[in-house]
Write a structure and sequence with these properties.
2 copies of one chain form a homodimer. The first copy, chain A, is an alpha/beta fold. Chain A is built from 8 helices and 13 strands.
């Protein structure tokens, strides 16, 4: 059976890839991905064939990967972060129904939530939710219900895709929803360009976050009622009892 | 400043560690961790000094790490999975307040949620929550509120610490709570011993999960309303609209 790897390459820096991910890319004849991610790994594997399709052409990219594998080549489809967190592994299984002779192997990686948490301190130590603010494929009412439900149950919340040109006010809208249950002084943090050139982090209150503009390369963290600022870092304790 | 690394070693297999984690361990004079995790890495770094403390002695383990760093040694505190997801990085910042001359660096890793997801297929593609069923440090009422809130808002849910000898019926209790909002035929999955000897996975319905006994080395996944079984794998689509 032809092998097709779906590889999470981590937040960006080569050294944040797993050994297993590096081995999969080494074994591959062809590496396929969105242009930005292809550029991140190309320099480390100069001898490989790289193929890419633009954003929003994800189905085409998956079909391309299966077609290359059907030619007998070993193929890696790469994703930033983890292949299974807002990544391509789901669509690969869906498209794979039409390509039963190709076997998928998913190689997990460090996603922006855990990569960003390491930069901020330790915001995700206790129960947390990941919510994407992109309403391209999800109705806004669903996103709203999740922001409210997660806030009411005192989850730490990590937001992916917090902003874009069209969705310039979504973070503000999300903060207003979370503020129905979370306090104004809830400890929050933002991390930009995790593991890449220009990495930056900032710890602030939820009130300040509401009035902060972020770009699409930023991951946003909202603490639970126990999250504290310790020496400039965002830290959530392990529980609700004294340790 | 003395450097103290807090390193997520991933789910267990050496090749699931990041390059950065391997480099941190190579640079270290002393590697500290819970006995089980120390045994997982010892064979790959036979020349290092290993120190460990038993379970439930986490604060002692943190103090030990800072004391070793204060002696001028380079130290790594290791955690399974990611250091920042139910890991030691939070407690290290808390204990670190008394050791201002030691600088912490958190090295993220692949947590059981994403490592297990890769084995099951692609369950975490869309918004999800991590909830620990351990009520050692968290009141059960809080866990209950989170299970209900996450189910009502149609999150994919990943359960850590689903069971123990004392908490043998907690998974059943959790399923009964989730069933207030999730359908009996919701697609679920369990993964045992992720990336270790004896790795196993099973896809089933929420009704079946309720009557399944799991051990403490199992990670449990409950789908959202869109999650499907595709060729034996658990797959959540990217959204609620046709792609």
């Amino acid at each position: 059976m032809n092998k097709l790897y779906v590889v999470g390459i981590g937040p960006g820096a080569y050294e944040k890839m797993t050994i297993e991910a590096v081995e999969a890319l080494k074994k591959s004849d062809v590496i396929i991905g969105y242009t930005v991610y292809v550029d991140l790994v190309r320099e480390h594997f100069p001898e490989k064939v790289f193929l890419s399709t633009p954003m929003k052409k994800e189905v085409d990219r998956c079909v391309l990967a299966f077609e290359e594998a059907e030619k007998g080549r070993t193929v890696s489809m790469i994703c930033s972060g983890d292949a299974g967190v807002y990544g391509m592994s789901g669509l690969m299984y869906e498209v794979g129904v039409n390509h039963p002779e190709v076997e998928l192997e998913i190689i997990p990686g460090v996603t922006a939530a855990t990569g960003g948490a390491a930069v901020l301190g330790a915001p995700l130590i206790h129960d947390f939710c990941l919510i994407s603010l992109s309403d391209l494929l999800t109705p806004w009412e669903k996103i709203e219900a999740r922001l409210l439900g997660a806030s009411q149950a005192d989850f730490v919340i990590c937001l992916y895709n917090p902003s874009s040109k069209k969705r310039y006010d979504y973070l503000e809208k999300a903060c207003d929803l979370m503020l129905r249950y979370k306090a104004l002084d809830t400890v929050c943090g933002i991390v930009g360009n995790i593991g890449r050139e220009g990495e930056e982090m900032k710890v602030m209150t939820l009130k300040e976050l509401r009035d902060t503009k972020v770009d699409m390369f930023t991951t946003v963290f909202i603490g639970n009622s126990q999250t504290r600022k310790i020496n400039g870092k965002m830290v959530t304790p392990r529980g609700y009892r004294n340790v």
